[in-house]
Amino acid sequence: INDYIQFRKRTNTKYNTIKGFVTTKNRLINFEKSQQCRLIFEDINLSFSDNFHEFLLKEGFGSGTIQKTYTQLITILNYFFERKDELKINLSDKFRSKLFKRGVKAENDPHPLSMSEFNALVKHDFKNDFLNLTRKRFLLQCSTGMRYSDVFTIVPEMIIESSIVYYPQKTEGKKN
Length: 176
Description:
The chain is mainly α and 176 residues long. The chain is built from 8 helices and 2 strands, in the order H-H-H-H-H-H-H-H-E-E. Strands 1-2 form a two-stranded antiparallel ribbon.
């Protein structure tokens, strides 16, 4: 996995993506410790998938985290599977099977503020300037539906007659 992480670093992969692969690597290392074994490519099969899934559950990870871990693991395995002949790796395609665990993407239910909570926050004055700025940004998000990262792109020139003139940019999609 270290080789894959280094490859991604050389191809200018974003920091948070690389951090995710490092996290997956660390979970696999902890799995090895719990099983008292050393994983090799030949070990990646349906039984491994079941055991790793059970380990992640026992460790207390939620379904979304397990799904993300498997997505990253499968990405790594695909990289090596495509190069298995030239790297002389004995890696089966079992990780591509529908029976190979994948986890379930977590759905986060919205938890909107009530009007009384919103008004209380409007009126509240924190003694800390940073908290007041955070409060204002949060209220702006609640009032406009803007994403957290988009709030930071607002500049005074975008505020015209008490309105924000803003054109959200489509986020970067998956690269094929």
